[in-house]
Amino acid sequence: MRASHSSTSTRVRRYWFQVAIAILIAFAALLLVRRSASGATPDSDSVDAGRKLADAWCTVCHNIEKNTAGTSNPAPDFAAIANQPATTALSVKVFLQTSHPTMPNLVLTPAQIDDLASYIISLKRNQ
Fold first, then answer.
1. What CA–CA distance (Å, rounded) separates 106 from 117?
2. 3-class secondary structure, 54
3. How far apart are CA 79 and CA 54, in angstroms?
4. Are 117 and 96 in contact (CB under 8 A)?
């Protein structure tokens, strides 16, 4: 009977250890998501790299500068996108990783996505 109690006790400890690890991983993920969506000022190197990417790939359809909002390109201005209330770095990154029927299917690396999102967020007023 003693062996059965020891086996049960070991399983219970293992279960709670796994629960604690899962909670720690979830907490760490929450902190990372919160940090990326916090609206902190983007790194200037990332903003510059994102500006170059936008200039190379996005200007056919989008106005990418702050001072060009309201001009005649068919797609939304980057400044208008940045200044929507729901726009965060995370929302831009998710958008750039999702197919959209009105956009070309760009295949971007994670670093390029980060840079382009940093550039777009840098256009937000009242940072």
1. 14
2. helix
3. 12
4. yes
